[in-house]
Design goal:
Elements: E1 4-11, H1 17-30, E2 36-43, E3 49-51, E4 74-76, E5 85-89, E6 95-100, E7 103-106, H2 117-124, H3 134-141, H4 143-152, E8 160-164, H5 165-170, H6 172-180, E9 186-190, E10 200-202, H7 208-216, E11 221-226, E12 231-238, E13 247-256, H8 264-268, E14 274-277, H9 284-300, E15 306-313, E16 318-324, H10 334-341, H11 346-359
Parallel strand pairs: 1-2, 1-7
Antiparallel strand pairs: 2-3, 4-5, 5-6, 8-11, 9-10, 9-11, 12-13, 12-15, 13-14, 15-16
Length: about 350
């Protein structure tokens, strides 16, 4: 049987470089090797495309975060949409063929990978790829525009104020008044970052400016969001088959047992004070309503392939927090856990995503 050749892209220039590497490690360790031949392409923090070892153990979230090391090799994409052959340039300039690539699996998180840029490059070359297209990726990456689109679709979101660096420097008092109208506490987030990088919880107004500066270190646009008191619920979404409705997994719940919030260490390093429960304890009617909202949100951004929908459940309504168009696949990530609880194993989930990517109409 001829195996499908999959180029796995990971790393990248964003602050989520190491999370992307860990996601790739998870996929490398679980993908069906009888069905797929994998070409691991690591993108360095400087943006160089390199051929990496097919070694899941080297891409784990151990004490030292994984990273793509530049070994001097360079992966070259086809020069037109008429070709599928990728080339490898060795140090010294020697070229060799990596063969034709059937589909790309872009396991990239954050700007420069999850935001539509890689997706656009692949579409220019006519290369099939896993996941969301250019528009959905761009919308899902930007929390401000995600909220704007969801609100227009009749989906409830938390109140927010978005500021740019010129806004904050030139009209600080005006925006500070708008922010204070949200009430305390508020969450301050980079508009276009993920994995809780640069996110702060502000419980005193005296700490607002410092939190905004932390977020500005990650992005030129910052979102300040009212806190919603409720259970933190997440579920996975997959595109429907043969024109069918989006499929939504059982829900998982993030339960805080300490005083903090679901930050980077809690998500990826198993820090104490957080418990992930999957499936979440929801009545049939509650789960049905969550499924309706998650599918509607996925459709509202023009979703394709996959997404994780994060909501707050107040006991009488679901408030959508965000959509993640390339959720993590690390061993403790919620997206694969929700699908496992729904009867779709990790290897089967990877196979489903590749099949969806190959058949997607862009």
């Amino acid at each position: 049987m001829t195996r499908t050749r999959v180029a796995l892209l990971f790393g990248g220039r964003s602050s989520e470089h190491s999370i992307s590497c860990a996601t790739a490690g998870g996929v490398l360790g679980a993908i069906d090797r009888d069905a797929y031949e994998v070409i691991p392409v690591g993108i360095t923090r400087d943006g160089a495309w390199t051929l990496q070892a097919d070694d899941p153990a080297a891409l784990t979230l151990a004490a030292e975060l994984p990273t793509v090391v530049d070994d001097g090799s360079r992966v070259r994409l086809p020069d037109s949409a008429a070709a599928r052959e990728w080339l490898l340039e060795r140090p010294g300039g020697t070229l060799e063929s990596l063969g034709d690539i059937d589909v790309v699996f872009p396991l990239l998180h954050g700007p420069g990978g999850e935001d539509g840029t890689i997706q656009g490059a692949l579409e220019l070359l006519g290369i099939p790829y896993v996941g969301n297209g250019v528009l959905a990726s761009s919308l899902g990456m930007d929390k401000h525009f995600t909220k704007t689109v969801l609100q227009a679709a009749g989906i409830e979101v938390a109140g927010w104020v978005t500021v740019t660096r010129p806004d904050w420097d030139d009209r600080r008092e005006l925006f500070a008044r708008r922010i204070r109208s949200l009430g305390l506490p508020v969450f301050v987030k980079p508009a276009r970052a993920g994995s809780s990088v640069g996110v702060s919880k502000v419980t005193e107004w005296s700490r607002l400016e410092a939190a905004i500066e932390v977020a500005f270190a990650e992005d030129s646009r910052v979102l300040i969001e009212e806190a919603v008191v409720g259970r933190e619920i997440e579920c996975g979404v997959l595109s429907g088959r043969d024109g069918g409705e989006p499929r939504v997994s059982l829900a998982g719940e993030i339960v805080l047992t300490g005083e903090g919030f679901y930050d980077f260490d809690a998500k990826y390093r198993g820090a104490p004070g957080v418990e992930l429960r999957c499936p979440a304890d929801l009545a049939a009617g509650e789960l049905g309503e969550l499924h309706r909202i998650a599918a509607r949100a996925f459709e509202a951004i023009g979703g394709s392939g996959l997404a994780r929908v994060d909501v707050f459940y107040t006991g009488d309504r679901f408030v959508v927090n965000e959509l993640n168009t390339m959720p993590g696949f690390t061993p403790i990530s919620m997206f694969p856990a929700c699908w496992r609880a729904s009867g779709l194993s990790y290897p089967a989930l990877i196979t489903e995503l590749i099949d969806l990517g190959r058949s997607a109409v862009r």
